[in-house]
Design goal:
134 residues, mainly beta, five-stranded antiparallel sheet, 2 helices, 6% helix, globular
């Protein structure tokens, strides 16, 4: 039996609500909840100068990160990696990571995660709070 695929979907960044619970500003554009995707999700992270996204890891998913503006420091298992505009990064499952903007201008990155965890609440494990990260 074949499973039907979700329909093609277009979503505007302006229509995606901002999530600031973990620091920075995350907007999920394409996900199971927003468009019925079945293999992963895609969004945009925006970090003002001095902003951070708290450390976490994904036990089921790889995360792909592409910096579209500014520069971001990705701390992977405690080791800093500087990503400049037009740089991409693969974060394997279980690697603890924190994103931060140590620069003087806003930084933006597109992120994609896949495959999906068996249940949404299993896909993301926080290892610090936004307050601890800041």
């Amino acid at each position: 039996m074949t499973r039907p695929s979700p329909a093609a979907a277009i979503r505007s960044l302006d229509a995606a609500p901002a999530d600031t619970r973990r620091g920075g500003e995350l907007r999920t554009l394409l996900s199971p909840r927003t468009v019925g995707s079945t293999s992963g999700f895609l969004g945009v992270a925006t970090l003002a100068p001095g902003d951070r996204i708290a450390e976490h890891y994904h036990p089921y998913s790889e995360e792909f990160l592409y910096v579209t503006a500014g520069a971001i420091v990705a701390d992977l298992d405690g080791v800093p990696h500087v990503l400049h505009e037009r740089d991409a990064l693969l974060i394997p499952p279980y690697v603890r990571h924190r994103l931060r903007n140590d620069g003087s201008r806003e930084a933006t990155a597109v992120f994609q995660l896949g495959p999906l965890a068996p249940r949404p609440e299993l896909g993301h494990v926080d290892t610090e709070t936004a307050a601890e990260a800041g």
